[in-house]
Automatic annotation (TrEMBL):
InterPro entries, per database record: PA2779-like (IPR046735), UCP029543 (IPR016924)
Signal sequence, renumbered to the chain: 1-26
Keyword terms of this UniProt record: Membrane, Signal, Transmembrane, Transmembrane helix
Transmembrane segments: 100-120
Listed name of the protein: PA2779 family protein
Domain of life: Bacteria
Length: 130
């Protein structure tokens, strides 16, 4: 029984070594093709920034600051490649919906204090000072 297991494992190891020695092919990438791929990703990033600026809540926030959405989109078209990448990175790192945990914690603390002061009775585990 042990001999069968050893021979099976031996064949598996030999097979894996044989598969690792398969020929691989590599080729040089022409500069034009690399530039096209870079331009495509930059165009994608620029399109993501424009899509972000066209959202309703973003357009509303821009209007509150005195900037129209169309003006902002025109300005994105004039940004350098590095500026577009930086702006897109900042947009992707924005919290989705604000700081929800901070808001919930603040509401909890306010309700807790009002419960302790006897102004409300929200939590059953608190005792009023009154």
């Amino acid at each position: 029984m042990k001999q069968g297991l050893v021979s099976t494992l031996s064949y598996a190891v030999l097979l894996s070594f044989g598969a690792a020695n398969l020929p691989l092919h590599a080729a040089m990438l022409p500069t034009e093709r690399a530039a096209e791929q870079s331009a495509l990703t930059l165009n994608d990033e620029r399109a993501e920034v424009v899509d972000f600026l066209q959202r309703e809540h973003v357009a509303k926030a821009l209007a509150e600051q005195g900037v129209s959405s169309a003006d902002a989109i025109e300005r994105v078209a004039t940004l350098s490649d590095e500026e577009v990448r930086e702006l897109n990175g900042k947009i992707k790192n924005l919290p989705a919906g604000g700081d929800i945990v901070g808001v919930l914690f603040t509401v909890f603390i306010i309700l807790l204090v009002t419960d302790i002061l006897g102004l409300t009775k929200v939590f059953p585990f608190t005792r009023s000072v009154r």
